[in-house]
Amino acid sequence: MSIRTIVVDDEKLAIQGLQLRLEPFSDIEVIETCANGREAIRAIKTQKPDLVFLDIQMPGFDGFSVVKGVMDVDPPLFVFVTAYQEHAIRAFEANAVNYLMKPVDEDKLADTIERVRQRLAEKRSADEAEKLKDVLAEVSPDSLETLGEDGDAAGRYEKMINVKDRGQIFRVDVDTIEHIEAAGDYMCIYTGDNSLILRETMKDLERRLDPKNFQRVHRSTIVNLDQVRQVKPHTNGECFLVLDSGAEVKVSRSYRDVVARFVH
User: What is the mean pLDDT of residues 20-30?
Assistant: First the structure.
């Protein structure tokens, strides 16, 4: 299956150079190129690509503005392309698949394409599972109830997570996890008195945790609801959750329904 791709850069030579480097990857299909952020937003919303290679430093709408501009639709995967190392952290905060430095290194590009393939495979697998669940709910609702009764659904969630960090393997009891923050393909796991780095996507980790206890409160943050001791309202419909350790985690407006369970 082809990976429908858009390349965005305000330098024509940069677009041409990246297109040449993408030619060896037979599953990458460049369906459009854009010279600025406004064109990119319009193309993403109309073409609905799987992947966007996005220059960060552009006049007017920069790369991060493009990402914000398409959050009202199902966003594609983003790979940031930049000549400036200092943008790397913000790229990971934007949950990009990866960021590439100009000029693009062929080995790093190959590694990035492999990450993209894995992410898309995970997304398609999850989408297929949701479709199957919807069909079951329509034609045989009792089958879903039975699934919950026999414990098969609850039993698949992890009780312990193995985390390889700093050359050691840590066994983490999920009940001790306060919150988890995404940084690209890495997860920062906070347990109140410790923090560990796990190489895994947020979607994968989220599927391993019981949603009764672990809920997304921000595009890049998961919180253990059992560790919440206070809700502090903030401006613009946002709020902060105060955890048992005293740490504060922001809840974005998109996830306000998570907070609702604390006010009844």
Answer: 96
Residue burial 59-74, b: 16+ Cβ < 10 Å; e: rest? eebbbbebbebbeeee
Axis-axis angle for helices 106-139, 12-22 (nearest 10):
70
Count Cβ atoms below 10 Å from residue 163 Cβ, excluding itself.
18
Alpha helices (H) in the chain, listed in sequence order: 12-22, 37-47, 63-69, 88-93, 106-139, 141-149, 152-155, 202-208, 256-260
SS3 state at 7: strand
Q: What CA–CA distance (Å, rounded) separates 187 from 197?
A: 6
Q: State yes or no: cis peptide before 103, omega within 30 of 0.
A: yes
Q: Torsions phi, psi of 227, nearest 5? A: -95, 0
Burial class (CB within 10 angstroms; exposed 0-12, middle 13-18, buried 19+) of 254: middle
Taking the C-alpha atoms of residue 6 and residue 21, their distance in angstroms, rounded to an integer, is 14
Q: What is the pLDDT of residue 155?
A: 54
Residue with tokens 């502090």: 232
The number of C-alpha atoms within 13 Å of 191 and in the hemisphere containing its C-beta is: 15
Total-model pTM: 0.53
The amino acid occupying position 18 is L
Q: Do 34 and 40 form a contact (C-beta atoms < 8 A)?
A: yes
Query: Is the predicted pLDDT of residue 261 greater than 80, yes or no?
Result: no
Euclidean distance between CA atoms 171 and 194, whole angstroms: 12
Mean pLDDT of all residues in 249-254: 82
pLDDT tens-place string over residues 130-189:
666 666 565 555 544 544 444 444 556 888 888 877 777 888 899 999 999 988 778 899
